[in-house]
Amino acid sequence: MTLNLDKSKWKHVTLGDIAAASKERVDPSDGSVERYVAGEHMDTDDLQIHRWGDVGKVDLGPAFHRRFRPGQVLYGSRRTYLRKVAVADFDGLCANTTFVVETKDEGALLQEFLPFIMTAEPFHAFAISESKGSVNPYVNWSDIERYEFDLPPTDEQKRIADLFWAVEHRRRALDDLAHRTRDAFEVVLRDIWSTGYLRPIGAIGECVTGSTPSKSNRAYWASEDVPFYTPSEIDGSDTIRPARQKVSHVGADAGRMLPPYSVAVACIGGDMGKSAVIQNPGISNQQITSIVGLSADDAYTLQAVLSHPLGRAGMEARETTTIVRKLNKSDLMKVEVPWPDDRTVLKTLVESNRRAASGVEAEGAGLVGLRSAILGEVFGGN
After folding, report:
1. What is the maximum span of the chain, computed from C-alpha positions, in angstroms?
2. Residues 225-257, buried b or exposed e (16+ Cβ, 10 A)?
3. What 3-state class would DSSP assign to 169?
4. pTM for this prediction
5. Calpha distance 319→367 (Å, rounded)
6. Cβ atoms 255, 200 nearer than 8 A
7. pLDDT at 376 over 90
8. How crowded is the C-beta side of 100, counted as CA atoms within 13 Å?
């Protein structure tokens, strides 16, 4: 895709030439705003604010006095490598470490074009390079207002911004569809749960707890032949991520090889209860217990019911807690999930949900790529 941009009339400017950080103050106690946005409410590379706090329910510190209004751009000036840029769609307040950025003159810079200037790779690279400090690096507005770039005329800003926002609105619609699909799936699974036909996991497949080949035996780690899975590869997807570590064939022989379509369950710490299907055979460490001996359909069906809130609750009810949370293999085997002899309906439901989720994920990834390509063509660096 190309925008066929004629940049001969673009004007070289600094961010401070055409935009400013608002200094409008508000007293959190005067009742004029109900919501506040802190750093944790803004997500990396996401222009939408999905979360916020209630001003009336917390004692905000003195730094929270900066007012923002719909359309203004919020920029997290701490840890700039987190790339937190968002566009407000409600009135609120934030700390003075979050810059509230707006155009100085709509005749020079359209407000709707500003967010994309500040999400382009060259801007992030500049902000990171200007950051001060090591533990909690930060930038001042006087630093980032020196950022230089080529600015299109306003009529071209409008054309580009319309395209950007069309992509952004479609991405948000996909996010909403994904949430509604997941919610509907959970409701249907809950209904299936209530019909009974519960069976303990130990009766569904063999449970195998992994082990870590000795690090002192170099032969075990001499070559990267076999995936070595850890809970960090179980990230919320139904399929486990590629293993970051691998062991030799000799090292794999020191553990228990997990065949394709084993269901890996993290059984310790903060990841406890997360699960994913293993597609490529490998071994796991002792923080994972896997259910093996399943068909592909059964593996994804079991992973789906274990990921359901009722499945997670069933595991949490059997966990032990001393210093860290832990679910022993013998306790995991006792967790009951819906598992009727005839699982045709259950499998069809899971497969339909997986296809829908995969389609949404693929289109979402395509939109992210499209947006990156557009930003690269307009501002370079992508």
Report:
1. 72
2. ebbbbbbebbeeebbbeebebbbbebbbebbee
3. helix
4. 0.70
5. 41
6. no
7. no
8. 24
